Structure formats: structure tokens, C-alpha cells
Amino acid sequence: MLGPDPELETAIDLRPAPLKRPPALICAWFDDAADAVVPLHDGTLATARRAADAYARQAKATNTRRAYRAGVRAWCDWCDTHALKALPAQPEDIVAFLASERGRGCSVTTIKLRSASIRYLHHLAGVPLPTQHARVTETIAGIRRAAGLAGEHPRKKAAATLAVLIRILEPIGNDLVGLRDRALLLIGFAGALRRSELAAIRVEHLEPRAGGLQLTLPRSKGVRAGTSVTIAIPTGTTAYCPVKAVYRWMGAAGIREGAVFRRVWQPPAGGGHDQTSARSQILGSRAIDPRTVARIIQMRSEAVGFDPGVLGGHSLKRGALTEGMERGVHPTRLKQHGRHKSYAVLDEYLEMGDPFDGHPLAGVL
Fold first, then answer.
1. Coiled-coil regions in this chain (predicted)?
2. Measured between alpha carbons, how far is residue 178 from residues 144, 175, 281, 301, 355 in Å?
3. For position 8, what pLDDT does the model report?
4. According to the model, what pLDDT value does residue 333 have?
5. Which residues fall within 8 angstroms of residue 213, CB to CB, at 6 or more apart?
6. What DSSP designation does 266 have?
7. How far apart are CA 102 and CA 94, in angstroms?
């Protein structure tokens, strides 16, 4: 019978929730509890229960856990400032915190995340959920309504359709950074990929096919948890072929295994190095993160005259699906290509353009 790994004992030995303790201690406890490690099987009931608890915590996506940690940190800092208990929390303190966050400029989305973070903190601690109190739900509803009346609505990133994408690609150079960014933009568009999916691509996920490349994503937001999904990246017939672009990048960078899209360090300025030469640039070994993908899209779009913030991490996916819609691709194929659970979600990604173009009642009256 296998015994527990002693190196994991401290990681899986979850301490009891520090109820009524200083906010800083509660914040530290949450950071550990949110990322529980599954213990090795030893046949005991205690280990099985700890494993089940750890699996339950891993149900939350990495980005969600990151957002919850930020929310709990903000909550604990605020409670510390005002000498209030962070755990268990009182509804009147939570609504005051949410109102304060709104007052300092947080968006409605951030307010809802703050409330969800506090809820998850109490869930992990095994205590009643104060966020279900009517005062909390009504306060959030009021913040959302006030924002709507003030004309504040979630701002979607613009769609990087083919014309927009070509405009961005044209001035990109052939150094390592340029080759990487060109491949990233084209693969992201052709596969209708999210920024997290782009950042996670590894060499073993790419498989040559007669018609192009088959990309296997170990996970995708719109697909059932634990299920991989395959995406066809067709070989193009123009200078903007995504398959040729990714092979060119990997060949120039010498990438044969591991992460496909990696950080590239420029040589220091003034050191006698040619900063545009691929030979003088240094390639990292680890994958870029999703935020870097968004920054690349924003930087490249701003370089050709787009206003800051207009394009972002969702622009490639929105652009690909909008381009497909404008070319008459059936919604079912678009939904499948975008890996969306419903047509309602797909609709959020489509940029409809001129509302009079193709109006269902045009010419009727």
C-alpha cells in the first residue's frame, strides 16, 4: 500500500479557517486553500476526503481562482483599514465594501467578482454565505441599474476581421518577435482562439494534416471540463497562411518541443547589437501568458493607428467568427468552430456592422 508523499503533506494539510482572526491571516489562508493539491492515494478515508475537497477546489479555472484571490485580498485590506471582521462577514459590511469599491471606480463586472470572491471565501471556510442576504443582492442590482442609467455598459473589444488583421500584419518585421507575433495573430484568427488557448499551445498539440494543421486543445472554455477539442487550421493560399507562419516562426526560433509561443528578449540598446537581428535576440523556454497575448494584439494594433484599447484578447476570435458570418457560413458551423455552448453565446462574439444591411424587413413596407 502506498503511503502519503511526505513532501505533499504540508501542501494538502489544510488548516481550519481562521475565523475572527486578523484579515491578513485570513487572506493568506485563502491563498493556500484555493490551490489545494490532491494527496497521493493511501486507502484511508481521511486522505480520500482531502482528495475530494482538493478536486472540488480545482473545479474553478485558473483565471477564476486568480480573480478570487484578488477579490479576497481587496476585501481583507478594506476590513483591516476599517477594523472589521473579514470572516465571517456581516452583510452590512459587505455592501459598504461594494459601495466603496464602486465609488473608487470599479466596474460592475468587478463589483460582481468582489461579491463572488467573498462568497467563495465563506464557502471554503464552511460558514454561512452572507452574500446571499437580500441587502447584498439588492445592492449589486442597484449598482448595476445605476450604471446602466448612466450609460455605462460592458465595452466589447472590436472584431479583428480579415481587413483589420491584414492592416496589422503588413508592417510586422521578420525578426524573432515579428515572426512570433505574425504566427500568433494568424493562428489565433484561423482557429478563433481565446488568448488563454493561444498561450497554451505546445508543439505536441500540432499535427500535420493534408489540408493544414490539426490543433488539439487539452481544454477549452466552451467545452465540457476534462475534454480536449481539435481545431482545423487550413493551409492558406496567400501570404497570410497561418500554417506557413507558425512553421516559419518555429524554424527560426529552433522550437521542436514545449511551448510554441514564448517570450523573446531584445538585446540592450547601445551595446553594439542589431536589435532587429534574430541572432541577437534571446528566446525564452516558457510559454507567454494570456495577458501577454492581449498586450501583443494591442501593441500591434496601436502601431498601425488603432486607438488604445479598441482591440484586445477577444478581437481575433470575434474577428474570425464575424468574418465567417459575413461570408455566409452557417451559424451551426460558426458555433462549432468557436466552441460555444449556445447560439446566445455565439451572438455575443459577432459584430453585426450596419444594422440596415440585410434587415429582415427591408423593402417590406
1. none
2. 42, 5, 11, 13, 37
3. 34
4. 92
5. 206, 207, 232, 233, 235, 242, 243, 246
6. P
7. 12
Residue 159 near residue 310 (C-beta atoms within 8 A): no
If one counts every other C-beta atom within 10 angstroms of the C-beta of residue 232, the result is 13
Of the listed ranges 117-126, 143-152, 153-162, 173-182, the one predicted with least confidence: 153-162
User: What sign does the dihedral 130-132-136-140 (CA atoms) show?
Assistant: positive
Cα 246 to Cα 203: distance, rounded to the nearest angstrom: 10
Q: Which residues of 279-310 are buried (b: 16+ CB within 10 A; e: fewer)?
A: ebbeeeeebbebebbbebbbebbeeeebeeee
Query: Number of C-alpha atoms within 13 angstroms, CB side, residue 132?
Result: 6
In degrees, rounded to 5, the angle at the alpha carbon of residue 351 between the alpha carbons of residues 228 and 328 is: 75
Residue 205 gets which letter from DSSP?
G
Q: Quickly state the pLDDT bin for 268 (edges 50, 70, 90).
A: low
Contact by Cβ (8 Å): 240, 169:
yes
Q: Please, what are the domains in the chain?
A: 10-149 (1.10.150.130), 162-349 (1.10.443.10)
Per residue in 279-326, pLDDT (tens digit) is: 568 899 899 999 999 999 999 999 999 988 899 989 999 999 999 998
Residues 93, 97: Cα–Cα separation, whole Å: 6
pTM given for the model = 0.72
21-74 pLDDT, tens digit per residue, is 999 999 999 988 887 788 899 999 999 998 998 888 888 877 888 999 999 999
Cα–Cα distance for residue pair 202/246, rounded to 1 Å? 12
Full strand arrangement of the beta sheet holding 206-209: 206-209, 212-217, 229-234
Using CA atoms, how far residue 317 sits from 18, 137, 196, 326, 350, in Å, is 43, 33, 12, 14, 9
Residue that is written with C-alpha cell 551595446 in the block: 271
Q: What is the mean pLDDT of the chain?
A: 88
CA distances in angstroms from 91 to 48, 142, 147, 339, listed in the order given: 35, 15, 22, 39
